[in-house]
Amino acid sequence: MKEIAAKAMVKIEDLSVHFGETKAVEHVNLTVAPGEILGIVGESGSGKSVTALTLMGLVADSAKMISGRILFEDTVLAESGKPRDKALYRRFQGEQMTMVFQEPMTSLNPTKRVGAQVEEMLLLHTQLTREERYQKVCESFQAVGLKNPEKVYRAYPHQLSGGMRQRAMIAMATILHPKLIVADEPTTALDVTIQNQIIELLRKINQKEKNAMIFITHDLNLARRLCHRIAVMQNGHVVECRGTQEVFADPKEEYTRRLIEAVPSRMKPKIKIQRSNREPVAVVEHLNVYYHDGGGLLSRKSRQQVIRDADFTIYRGEVLGLVGESGCGKSTLSKALLGMNRDIEGEIRHFSTRPQMIFQDPYSSLNPCKTIEWLLTEPLRAAGEIDPAFKMSAADRRAEAHDMLRKVGLDEKYLDRRPSQLSGGQRQRISIGQALITKPGLVIADEPVSALDVTLQAQIMELMRRLQDEMHMAYLFISHDINVVYQMSDRIMVMKDGQIVEQGETEEIFRAPKDPYTQLLLQES
Description:
- By secondary structure, the protein is α/β, with parallel strands linked by helices.
- The protein has 21 helices and 19 strands.
- Strand 18 and strand 19 (499-505) form a beta hairpin.
- The model is unreliable at 1-6 and 295-299 (pLDDT under 50).
């Protein structure tokens, strides 16, 4: 460790960061050497992202650096007791140190084309011609696994899937080959095949250019595969920082041991709940779903078909898993099922009331202007306007919100907060509570645990199954994580390029996959 510290590119010394009375980071000491990948793992709210944002000079102005300093190649970027030197940071940000953010939809400008946003890095820091910049951006898109880079270049963020947006962000961060890359959950929205591509891409960049990387993740399997060292954070403190193999082979802290044991795996026993009722809650027959690229709803020329001839049934009390690569049509199918996209052919029949959806990106799906109490009570108030069973007083709605908050693992102090004051995992738990509070018959869960650390993943999955058993509801459970789908689902559908290529009982699919694409997914997970 002393050898690494002596030649470190990045030094974080005795860093403490507070938000008012909240001690987000306490006395953190970390170093990263050229050519080294440091993983930072820990539960949501442990201080991982605050540490990274402080290093990058991007932490909120409300944050106060109580102690410590941050050095990049012996230049002191930040020091306690001194105001942040934004001009100094601008010399390093983008060209020498860059960051991949956790939630790409809130990081990308929704009014600008994706290619232009990535090209801006080249415009600011290089002398390339317009044509050279265009070619460089398309090459970068291809390098991170984006098919048809010319089309992605012209697209707006909302026209890409969550995984495609995340890959565009990674392209933006790596296009200038900076000396330091800070990746905050860079593969959260990606399916397993693209995860592998991104991990290999980051590893190749690291090996070729000998840059330093900080890889923040709740996926310990990814950290194990990519990182040279791992720092484990808990409640703002670094409780353990050693070589990756040492941490996994012989964790010194009980907290580290719990994190490792909580990692989803096909080797662990499945959550099993007996299902005897085969009553359908939704039936889909010969479903085709379209999007429009302009020209109006009646213009057939502008139609783009996304889902092709889908047939399936969701039964009460079951979890139907839906897996496939980013952009294959998983989210499009779920929106059609809820009536959010009405440009369809075929038939969708519902046999339940108040179907709900848990969205993939809680930061964009939760109203940032409202408190958590309002977000949890509003579905009850709205349901009360159309269903006498949900007519209740404001005090009763608040009591229901308290109860749901406890069920998703948060206490009452969060009721008066807004989404921006929560961690990514905490926001996802609010989204789950918001969807379940009206006790729906069908819930479509679009990556409901993707933003959660492994211990919270296990808690939320257990919570969802327990509530499902109590309320006899069904889930369409969408995920790119094969191991999570295995643990959660009774049956599985596999989707590729808008078509369901295989479906069946979970154990049967995993034991003997028939379609070559399913075999590939299981092989790479």
